[in-house]
Amino acid sequence: MRIALIGYGKMGKTIEEIAIQRGHEIVARITTLNPIDTLDFNEVDVAIEFTAPHFAVQHIEACIEHHTPVVVGTTAWNAQLDYVKELVASNEGSLLYASNFSIGVNMFFDINKRLAKLMSAYNSYSVVLEETHHTEKLDSPSGTAVSLANDIMLSNPSISSWVHEDETIPETKAGQLGVVSYRKPNVPGTHKITYSSDIDTIELTHTAHSRNGFALGAVIAAEWLFGKKGIFTMQDVIKFEE
After folding, report:
1. What is the pTM of this model?
2. CB burial of residue 147 (10 Å; 0-12, 13-18, 19+)
3. Which domains, from first to last, does the chain contain?
4. Which of 24, 133, 191, 206 is catalytic?
């Protein structure tokens, strides 16, 4: 495939390396110095977007208007998700978005939901979600942590909301999930969910060792999206049997 990289930071460069290894061609690298209005969409089969929240929607708009499938890894733009869904539908576009493209993390999402459902029968356990990322990460909590927290609420009716703090576990009331974000130098990303009671502790942890897992998942998502119409997530790419 001919791939346009929208965003060419550390993640973009890793995606480029893996895409080439998998036999694809990088035909454009969009940056602030080479903006999206310079892109010849006729030369692009699919775009992969990893930039910043305030750029994501305008990049999605450009891709959809030019009938170019786009994979979006940028997070923290979901307040405009309803608008984007309408845009994709009205233009018969192709969009795949995810808070995390790692195959392992998407398995982790599934396990998290299953564990939360099991734990809903035992109100003696309190639950805390911790996420640790590099100091350059723009959003806090991470998009992955938001997805995990929302999935816990959907799977466990006894938890109705979550509260967030940076660098310290927040105080919570009954029915609340505490979410804490830590930022440290040169850390690819760790997410840990802990259920604690007076009797025991259950911990569920995913630790990334490099960006390669995220980049590989993004390329796999682009391969999967090519030729399809509609709006999808990574859960559509990786099907889990109940």
Report:
1. 0.83
2. buried
3. 2-101+212-237 (3.40.50.720), 103-207 (3.30.360.10)
4. 133
